[in-house]
Amino acid sequence: MNFFKIIFILLFTLINSLALADSHDQKQEVLDKVNEIAKELENEEEVPLNDPFAGNEGTSSMSGNIPADEQENELSLYNFKLAGLISGKDHSYISIVNSGGEVLTLTLGQFLGKIQLVDLRLTEAIFKKEDGKFMIIDFNNQVREADDY
To answer: In the structure, how many helices (H) and strands (E) does the chain have?
Structure first.
């Protein structure tokens, strides 16, 4: 049974019973039931939560070949995931998330470290490097370098 359903039922029963209870015996009976349910909840197995920003090796873009100069750079595009993009007539934005869950929102022309956001498409963002080459990140968390875009 869902943990939250159990808590809801537990609280609902407790509130109703306490509201209707006129004597100490009825209140004690309700408290005994609450303690019994709490013991049952303690015996249930804990289910580990998945952190979507944990950056595990299986889904991270870092699982590919990363250039040596990018590995130590905290602001390397390889350390981010593309979370969203908004393209408008006057302004365009992207949101990227690092492994710690911090969201950075960039607009066209802004820099992420030494690379500049220069364009975006429906499913990817394009950055220009200092040497004139481009880095492209997509929603599949793939980062690729290109001479042009």
So the answer is: 3, 8
Query: Can you name the residues that pair with 124 across neighbouring β-strands?
Result: 138
Using a 10 angstrom Cβ sphere, with 0-12 exposed, 13-18 middle and 19 or more buried, the burial of residue 40 is exposed
Nearest to 1 by CA among 41, 38, 35, 39: 41
User: How confident is the model over 34-64, as pLDDT tens digits?
Assistant: 788 777 766 666 656 565 555 544 444 444 5
Residues 99-106, mean pLDDT to the nearest whole number: 89
> pTM for the full model?
0.56
Spatial contact of 85 and 120, defined as CB atoms under 8 Å apart: yes
- Which is nearest to 125 in space by CA: 73, 89, 83, 91? 83
How many Cα atoms occupy the beta-carbon half-sphere of 80 within 13 Å?
27
Q: From start to end of the chain, where are the E strands?
A: 80-87, 92-98, 103-107, 111-112, 115-120, 124-128, 134-138, 143-146
- How many residues are there in the chain? 149
Neighbouring-strand partners of residue 128: 116, 134
- Residues 70, 137: contact at Cβ < 8 Å? no
